[in-house]
Amino acid sequence: MSFFRCQHFLSFSILLMAIFVVRTTQADEGMWLFNQLPKRQLSEQHSFGVDSQWAERLMLAAVRFNSGGSASFVSANGLVLTNHHVAADTLYKLSTPENNYHEDGFLAKDFSQEIPAPDLELNQLVAIQDVTDKVNSALTAGMSPQEAAKARQAIMASIEKDSLDKSGLRSDVVTLFGGGKYHLYLYKKYTDVRLVWAPESGAAFFGGDADNFEYPRYCLDVTLFRVYENGTPAKISNHLRTEPQGATDGDLIFVAGNPGRTRRIYTADALAYQRDVAMPRMMNLLRRKENLLLQYSLGGDEEARRAKDDLFGIQNSRKAYSGMLGGLQDPSFIASKRELEATLEKKVVDNPKLESLGDAWKSIHEVQQRKAALIGKSGTLKSRLYSIAETIVLMIAEDAKASADRLRQFRDSNRESLEQELYSPAPMYPDLERTLLADELARLMEDRGGDDPLVQSILAGKSPRSRAAEVVAGTKLFDVATRKEIAAGNGEALSKSDEPAIKMALAFEAEHRRIESEMDEIEELERQAYAKINQAQFAISGDSVYPDATFTLRIAYGIAKGYESDGVVLPWSTTMGDAFEHEVRHHSQSPWILPKSWHDAKSSLNLPTPLNFVCTADIIGGNSGSPVVNKEGKLVGVIFDGNIDSLTADFYYTDKTARAIAVHISGVLEALSKIYKADHLVDEMTAK
Amino acid sequence: MSFFRCQHFLSFSILLMAIFVVRTTQADEGMWLFNQLPKRQLSEQHSFGVDSQWAERLMLAAVRFNSGGSASFVSANGLVLTNHHVAADTLYKLSTPENNYHEDGFLAKDFSQEIPAPDLELNQLVAIQDVTDKVNSALTAGMSPQEAAKARQAIMASIEKDSLDKSGLRSDVVTLFGGGKYHLYLYKKYTDVRLVWAPESGAAFFGGDADNFEYPRYCLDVTLFRVYENGTPAKISNHLRTEPQGATDGDLIFVAGNPGRTRRIYTADALAYQRDVAMPRMMNLLRRKENLLLQYSLGGDEEARRAKDDLFGIQNSRKAYSGMLGGLQDPSFIASKRELEATLEKKVVDNPKLESLGDAWKSIHEVQQRKAALIGKSGTLKSRLYSIAETIVLMIAEDAKASADRLRQFRDSNRESLEQELYSPAPMYPDLERTLLADELARLMEDRGGDDPLVQSILAGKSPRSRAAEVVAGTKLFDVATRKEIAAGNGEALSKSDEPAIKMALAFEAEHRRIESEMDEIEELERQAYAKINQAQFAISGDSVYPDATFTLRIAYGIAKGYESDGVVLPWSTTMGDAFEHEVRHHSQSPWILPKSWHDAKSSLNLPTPLNFVCTADIIGGNSGSPVVNKEGKLVGVIFDGNIDSLTADFYYTDKTARAIAVHISGVLEALSKIYKADHLVDEMTAK
Predict the structure, then answer these.
(1) Which of A1, A192, A306, B71 measures 20 to 30 Å from B427, CA to CA?
(2) CA-CA distance, B462 to B476, in Å (whole number)?
(3) Which class for A654: exposed (0-12), middle (13-18), buried (19 or more C-beta within 10 A)?
(4) Residues of chain A neighbouring B209 (CB-CB closer than 8 A)
(5) Structure pTM?
(6) Chain B environment of A328 (Cβ under 8 Å)
(7) What is the ipTM of this complex?
(8) Is residue B453 within 8 angstroms of chain A, CB to CB?
(9) Residue B175 near residue B552, CB atoms below 8 Å
């Protein structure tokens, strides 16, 4: 479950937008900040005293996959444990028609066999600083939304730049509580990341799309990488120790990971907009792309292999969004939200001290209407080829400005990540790019109408299909050296370029900037309004709060326990033996086919070994690959999914039937040893 | 290729709406009326003199599947030959978990083994009468659009009723040339239709969705039924004689079938509306349903079997619409249409005699805007369960009126067909109905917004999923006797019913009628405007015209010949041997798996026997199953598809790379004899 695998469908600005506080918490709710731990809750609910050193060790052992997932260091020699589906993108990029590592798995017998990933960036959070006052000092009364946003961006960029220069660490200012707090996150970056071991996709994604977001599950959804520094395995002092027994029923457990986005602060109007406009459109887009890639995959085995990574991400997102939309479509949810809101609003209006906050709900309402008017007016095309051209076009113009004045992704602080993505040697397939670009051009025409002058200019008198064929046949951007060469030129050289993808991006540039600028304004208005709602809630409900998710490191906690759904009692865990039974129950038909390696090793396996388990921790997409640890801070599992009932987590937490699903560490060790004959990795992970 | 298999996505009113004349014809263009044959064209282009008796024999041998396809009588004992995919609906209904006739095929060894289809109606066109003057006489100057439409409906209903009473034949007034002509079609109906033979779906739909709308093809897409009268095989005097050699490269051939809908008269504005609004919405709906059924099918083999029929229809439609939309998205097409239109409009304006016609284009333009405002405001839910409830609710109210005043489908002339559908004993599956209804309720909420009072009333405070579960669990409409019982009641009894599906349909009834009425008005305005454009074209371009398709019997003609596409030369025909090679080329993987019966019989087969072939005849969805005959009027093939380039046929004909695809009759006979051991059927079809 990582709908960040499908990140290009979530505009990055949206990802970073919804960053707001939550009222009061219940049960095991909460994605807590490492510098604001739920000490009272853990003490009251679970009689557990959080020790700051305990938490710091966990923070340092946690790893973020910049591509959209979580992970952890699990050995002193830089071994990194994450989900197979977080690694999938890399596994596809490393695969060739001859060696399909995603499908067939991979095992390096020693360091020399470990394969460098083409464009991974891993982040280890090493420090957090509160820079709220510094950010707020840049804003003065009477600034327009645009001015305020620009001033805030400028100060944030300057803080990031100073920090980078001083520390040499990746430095991101994170907006929390809808602008109530600004924290500077300092990350050590690892960019030499090598593949160590991956199981077959038949084991990692056993049950496929049919079982996705379901429970009981039986997936070995894990993969091992290793980070290197200066050509040798990195030395990691704060890695997690493994508890070979793993989690047990009823255990208090903790999850350290990077939940991508939640929107629990949203008002009823904002939720109604999501329900009626944004999500239905997103579902249409996802079904469109899913359908397109399924059709493309019918072309043959090789086509299916090329499309599989994107296709999985899209199917995963589609299922996730359908769960979210289903939650919103329950009339009782928004109705109860509206009721709570009316109570809060009345308290605000009745309290003279809070008077200035009273217009926030109206402002959110108006913002939804502006958003609705803008939807379908995207200023970009979702294709890798186009994205490369667009990045180059924007970069050349942005580089002429001071870093603080640039669009966010072109600031100095993000430079390395940007270039790693732009100059990635990962293979691109002209036929797939043509298919995707043609569909995006058709989508553009459908969104804006065929008579729109911009559409006509971009299509240059051709049908979407012919135009895409023409651009893909003529482009030289598949070649990384050409990208670098063009990017090294100036604006004048660019404007004379006859590179067709670049010309297309140039034709779109002004509109792209216009829309980004309007979105910025809308987001700023929203930010200001939610900041007021936060203030009102602080004033009325006091503390006990955690901010909405921001794809930054959080700690969640809960209990390993089963649940009852529609009268069926579901156990806290499944075992390796259950996986074989599940296969038989489905007549060993795709996607319920365990790999040959599992069948070969079956007789040697300890079949009662736990394979997957569920817990009540508050997680969401982005948490994929998060380590699950026990009270001693020892590794007992790896989060890889949430059940269908947990998909409302974007808007609300519940522990009634919602559960996070993890791979049990005992299952990982048993499989590594008996199935994959990788005792050297077991030894490395369990070394004292 | 029958996007009428998916008829519930094409509102019936739309199906019957676009009935307009075409300007000038080119090459083998045209779907000609049997009472207005293209004698001059055939003589000039192919030196062929059409003999009226020749044409009448062909007309009488042609059969229409009321469910949305074409066919022909091929023996004196009532044998009917159509496509397997036209029969699929019936094959699914006759199948059980034990006997999957769609998948595994069926063969009756004698009459006693032939299985009655639950709800088929076959139509044989026996006479056509021009009733234009009679219809027009009912309209007087100064009538409002609503009055004109009502008056026309009333006179048409009365003509149909009189004819039915007098002849005992099904009598339909067909609106041709956008109202330029009205013809009364008299059909002999056959409702006792029995399954005789069907091949395995692996042979009929070899290559599946991947090969659909492609060429070369290798499909035995045929099935045999038999019509009965009074419990014995019907005696057919005008059946087609089979030409065992079938078609040959370069042959002049004729196709007699029921093309469903074309819109070649559409103005540029109407086409732009299709391109920018109607078709993108349709594509979203189709992808939505496809996705839904694919997810449902993941539940298991039985679920997959239940969903397969609808799923195939939807995938077929989706691919067809994507081809049509692709054609419209070529800017040069609408541009050239706009140019032609400007020329015509200028001639009209410059000609004082035609002055009154000049506002037609503006009127069409305005109508598109009204349509756009109405789109997404459907007054119904597309589910079989809901459709049954809705039919009963409307029927009870309509039955209280005189036949002529009723909604079209409730008039006496359509009574038998309506009841056959309503009381069909075909199996319904609660889990599938729940899935479909839940999705339709969600779709309704997305279309109208969750705060819409009508939506709230229909959902009754529940989520779409819960509401659908509640209705499906509580309904008794799965039982045919209950349907009859409720339908026998009056309006008062109905209003007190606590049958949940009926209550839902009652809550929707007023809105449904409001929308139908507005659609009627829009269609009337459109009809009047197109009638003017037709008049202008008649006045300026003269004759050489055929009306847009109306799912009534037409004759098309063309040449059996190959073509060149992207530099590849494609042969006029494929052979049975090629089918085996195609299977090997795709590693015998699904959907390229020929049935065991083919492999068992391979050594005895004459492999060079033609299996499929292409021709330039002008066809479209609804033509599926149409007989292809030679100059002697003998059966040489059966239409089953068009290639992807032919999908523009809705809007324009081209013979450059567009082709109709047929099963070659020699392949049918060879397979019947050698693979299916059905020499008795070969003998029946080839009897002198």
Answers:
(1) B71
(2) 21
(3) middle
(4) 298
(5) 0.80
(6) 450
(7) 0.80
(8) no
(9) no
